[in-house]
Amino acid sequence: MNKSVLVLLAVLAAAGAVFAADDAKRRRPLPHNYGKVIINNFSEKAGLAPVEFDHWLHRAKFTCRLCHVDVGFAMQANGTEIKAADIMRGYYCGACHNGKLQHGDRKVFEACSKDRTDMKRCERCHSGGKDVKREYDFKSFTAKMPKERFGNGINWEQAEEEGLIKPIDFLEGVSIKKKNLANQKDFSLEPKSATMSKIIFSHKKHTIWNGCEVCHPDIFVGVKKGSTKYSMKEIAQGKFCGACHTKVAFPIADCKRCHSEPARRADSES
């Protein structure tokens, strides 16, 4: 294959990624709805409204690793078959929503009960299509947090760094105490398009929320730099980085958050 054809293919690939990001931008949800998951494996079959799960509230209080590794929620919406009986036995949502767990100055409410006459309890989660007043209002909850343009409009990374949120990463009786692995230094990744800045990837920033277990080996099989090959098209499809950065973490439309700096600065420190 000659050089001109290779250049053309590279340009088309980059254009496809831009169109995918642009399409995601056009369909941008309202800030409080970004990351919201509708859970409806069994709800309507049981005569209840679907569950509306607000990621923004839970990510402000718990790490992603705690929920998706220790508690065991799948990374895909409706990928975990959650039943009320499981919750009442202390699994899934019931690991926290048991009426006993103390979080800050309050106890986390008990999610499920055998008493089906208490519908207000059910509607705190099974709120799909209902005008349910929520305990936490997104606008007031995030009023003092650092802002950004995309996703929820909140820079969660900066909020954690400034101590505005302190996500819990250990749940007694569920999590296992273990030593933290040493973080690798930031490193650079070369973009396929010559028009894009190099990507600076920070293990430190990711492990605060994800540990190592969320990403390896389910999302990235290899742990050696460059061992996993992927494209912007695949990321836009929800694969690799897109497993989080098209759903909950800042979206791929925010190009400069990843394509941030020339790589020489990070590489010179190693």
Care to describe what's here?
- This protein is mainly alpha-helical.
- It has two domains: about 5-30 and about 180-265, Cytochrome C3 (Alpha-Beta Complex); about 30-140, Alpha-Beta Complex (Cytochrome C3), CATH 3.90.10.
- The chain has helices spanning about 5-25, 55-60, 65-70, 85-90, 120-125, 140, 155-160, 205-210, 230-235, 240-245, 265; strands at about 35-40, 50-55, 100-105, 105, 185-190, 200.
- The strands form three sheets. Strands 1-2 form a two-stranded antiparallel ribbon. A two-stranded antiparallel ribbon has the order 3-4.
- The chain is globular and about 60 Å long.
Secondary-structure map with pairings?
Blueprint: H1 3-26, E1 37-39, E2 51-53, H2 55-59, H3 64-71, H4 84-88, E3 102-103, E4 106-107, H5 119-123, H6 138-141, H7 156-161, E5 187-189, E6 199-201, H8 203-210, H9 232-236, H10 242-245, H11 264-267
Antiparallel strand pairs: 1-2, 3-4, 5-6
Overview features:
disordered C terminus, Cytochrome C3, 270 residues, 29% helix, 2 domains, two-stranded antiparallel sheet, globular, two-stranded antiparallel ribbon, single chain, mainly alpha
